Amino acid sequence: MSKFTELNLAPALLQAVDALGYTDMTPIQAGALPLLLEGRDVLAQARTGSGKTAAFALALLATLHCERSRLQVLVLCPTRELADQVSKEIRALARFIPNVKVLTLCGGVPLRPQLASLAHEPHIAVGTPGRIGELIEREALRLDSVRCVVLDEADRMLDMGFLDAVRGILAGTPAARNTWLFSATWPAEIRTLSAQFQDAPVTVAIEDAHEQAAIEQRFYQVEPPDKPDAVIALLLEHQPASCLVFCNTRVDVKTLSEALCRRGVSALALHGDLEQRERDEILLQFANGSARVLVATDVAARGLDIKALPMVISWELAHDADTHVHRVGRTGRAGESGLALSLVASRETGRVARIEEIIGAPIAWAKLPGRGHSLAMPAPVMRTLAIDAGRQDKLRAGDILGALTGEAGLQAGEIGKIDLFATRAYVAISRARFDAALQKLRNGRIKGRNFRVRGL
Questions:
Q1: In terms of domains, do 179 and 273 share one?
Q2: Which residues contact 116 (CB under 8 A, 6 or more apart)?
Q3: What's the pLDDT at 254?
């Protein structure tokens, strides 16, 4: 079974699948979706970008009782970014089903609007364990009607210290429910959690060898003081349209991003010290082509959905081999080739053997490029414009597009991705036309109204 049309899905779901351009199922969808539709508990190994969200979204929507205004599905995610993506995917697949209410409930934003939204129960709640737990304690979120709980990227939730919170939430749900665990890796804690809360789960593990074959890995012997120059040399040699650089600590994230910026490389830093709005804006700028390089910790980068990422760099080898494999899997998606480069100091060589064991071959050591091949990386092709208005102001993407192509005089091809939040909107503009667009919107109107507009 490889086609969505071979599944016993309602016409409204097949219509949504067709509208999204999905035809053939990915391996995780083909392996897990029939079991999910049968109502089985599933423990699935699936990395980011494998299509797992669509798998469990279709299954939970297939059994949803929209006529019942009660919380029926709870999806737990490690970060707000991932929760936002999951909510968007569910809404996209539910577009032809009337009256499906999906709420995103995460920390980093005021609690009061979420409490107000819960005055009328959603059918589906997607959120982080911390905020979900807080809402349960306040008795604002009731679990007595929950029929399915999804733990998405369960290993990262445990890495972030959410194990007790997840256990508490699961313990408060009805015993007669489905529990679906999706995890890139299967540490012992995941197995323990599965044994405690799943009922005869079916294991689905997808071999990613066919995707890994499109990814070239190279390892470089570099001591810590020389690593900033090594990263810059690799960026200058390969000139990637975008590159994600992984660091193990937030201190290294700050150090490297500052070094790159001093050398004229367009780089952003993503780490746990940032406020939620800062995190949102950094992720948006990288995703829409307004920055070429994102330097991030593994946890901070979870939930980042970049479909075309030609290169990743590990500033330092990950402490465990599974995390290294997850980093590598960020590139080379959807049939594209990818390049994964790792800088290895003498103190890190003990981690190499485990990586070789997982990939089943000796790693390929390489020599760093010289410095005479290029003077600088080109600037990003886009810049991001921020509008202090969003869905709560009844603002739509079409309104922004109309204002830019109308009074502002831009061509459609000069406008990139538009992202709408409750109180903010962001739009990628061609760098050559950015200043003109910013000035026109500041002096003009969007949907007949004046809004504060700024550049990032």
A1: no
A2: none
A3: 92
